[in-house]
Write a structure and sequence with these properties.
Largest sheet: none
Structural class: mainly alpha
Distance between the termini: 61 Å
Low-confidence stretches: none
Mean pLDDT: 83
Number of strands: 0
Order of helices and strands: HH
């Protein structure tokens, strides 16, 4: 036996696969497999401009000064 990964390009193929499975010709192991590449945080590097990052950094710095450390208790 050989295991293969199939890409379904037509909805009629699902019935065909079901019929083949009913005849014990094939066995569907998993009905839904995502072949999309998992995204990494590295994929987003450079998407935010340096000017926007400066604004974000400034906002974080200002808001962090307003944290009440005793409020976490």
């Amino acid at each position: 036996m050989e295991t293969v990964l199939l890409q379904i390009n037509n909805n009629k193929a699902y019935k065909l696969l079901k019929d083949l499975e009913d005849l014990n010709i094939v066995k569907v192991l998993k009905k839904s497999v995502s072949t999309e590449k998992k995204r990494s945080a590295h994929d987003f590097l450079g998407l935010i401009s340096k000017a926007d990052m400066a604004i974000i950094d400034k906002a974080i710095e200002q808001d962090c000064e307003n944290i009440d450390l005793d409020g976490w208790k």
